[in-house]
Design goal:
The protein is of the alpha/beta class and 243 residues long. The chain has a domain of 167 residues: P-loop containing nucleotide triphosphate hydrolases (Rossmann fold), CATH 3.40.50. Helices cover 35% and strands 17% of the residues. The structure holds adenosine-5'-triphosphate and magnesium ion.
Length: 243
């Protein structure tokens, strides 16, 4: 298998890293049947891809074998943003039988973290993502990987992630704290639940960090600021989530 180098996010500080570690721990406590996890959101730019990559790295760091699949077949920027490569074959070519598993699977520089990129934009993303070959591939990959994380497009815009979630055992909703209304988040939650997937919880991204919270209390904890703060609710999809 080829290796591809993912560019590092140098802006990440201790508190952000800790937030990802806590998210990792919470995922592990959700049980052994949490193995194939879709990440979705209402709208673009809420942080799905960033969080998928960071959870992937964080799980690999503790010795888990992780496959991260970029299933945003419509407008993925992952190759362009995170690598220096071009023309990388990916999921769209694999599912349309233009490329083999070997062609699209990449090791990354992080031991234990492998990736499949989205590939070229296809005319029929929903058909490809809902295909039995994708389902069969995920089943087979569960024999090799401890976790399969699937980054998807926003469910408030296109149906793709609900289709993918149908093949997953769980889903995480990423919510931009300042931009998404409660009613919009609930609509997406309902749509996800209709696909039969269990919602693990909500990552509340771009949220007010601890600095502000502490300074309001008149204290000075200037180094406590971090942007990636999330509120997480465990339990099955039938329960009310925290947002
Ligand atoms: N907690 C955060 N603090 C600051 N910037 C963030 C945070 N989370 C994500 N970002 C930035 O926001 C932008 C959008 O993030 P990302 O690409 O992960 O979102 P996305 O939900 O995958 O978007 P899309 O739906 O377009 O695929 C990126 O530039 C990313 O670096
Ligand atoms: Mg994305």
């Amino acid at each position: 298998m080829k290796t591809i180098v993912l560019k590092e996010d140098n802006k990440k500080d201790y508190f952000v890293t800790e937030a990802y570690r806590t998210l990792r721990t919470n995922m592990q406590f959700c049980g052994k049947d949490v193995r194939v996890v879709a990440l979705t959101s209402c709208f673009p730019n809420e942080g799905k891809t960033t969080i998928a990559i960071e959870i992937g790295k964080s799980l690999a760091e503790i010795g888990k074998k992780v496959l991260l699949i970029d299933a945003d077949l419509r407008k993925s920027v992952v190759v362009r943003k995170y690598t220096s490569e071009a023309g990388v074959l990916g999921l769209s070519q694999f599912l349309s039988q233009q490329a083999t598993e070997e062609d699209v699977l990449y090791h990354t520089q992080y031991e234990g973290l492998d990736m499949i990129f989205a590939g070229q934009y296809p005319p029929n993303p929903v058909e490809l993502l809902g295909s039995t070959s994708f389902k069969a591939f995920l089943e087979k990959s569960k024999e090799v990987y401890d976790y399969i994380l699937i980054d998807t497009p926003p469910l408030g815009m296109v149906i793709d992630s609900a289709v993918v979630a149908g093949f997953c055992d769980s889903a995480i909703m990423v919510v931009n704290a300042g931009k998404v209304r409660r009613v919009q988040a609930l609509e997406v939650k309902e749509q996800l639940l209709r696909s039969g997937v269990r919602i693990l919880g909500v990552v509340l991204n771009h949220a007010e960090g601890k600095k502000e919270l502490f300074s309001k209390a008149g204290k000075s904890y200037s180094r406590q600021y971090y942007k990636t703060y999330y509120r997480y609710s465990g339990g099955s999809g039938s329960r009310e989530n925290s947002k």
